[in-house]
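COMPLEX REQUEST
Ligand: zinc ion
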Amino acid sequence: MAHRFYDSTRWRNLRDMVIARHPLCEQCKSKGLTTIATQVDHILPIEEGGNPTDWTNLQPLCASCHSKKTRKENEPEKKIEQKITIPVTTFRRDSCTGMVGPSTVSCRFR
Ligand SMILES: [Zn+2]
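STATUS: Structure written out below.
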């Protein structure tokens, strides 16, 4: 969920200043790539107690790296979601040959 801070004029000005001084994506730069940064990321997210206006907590990123990082931060929640998903058991049609009783539900398709 986007933090309310991101809608503030203070943040937009700060973001513009960071990009003006550091116009290249930090993560691409560390991989030896030259990519123009279009977004400024909080290294430690505000939600996790990161300082929203501290320059040392800010890094310029390109859209691709930023979305990758955001996805990584949300991963633990997604893993929990996947765990509670009930797996759907698929029956092989030929596996019910000779089976009798309520366990032969899939035989309907034969
Ligand atoms: Zn990048």
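REMARKS: The helical segments are 9-21, 26-30, 63-84. Residues 10 and 100 are 71 Å apart (CA to CA).
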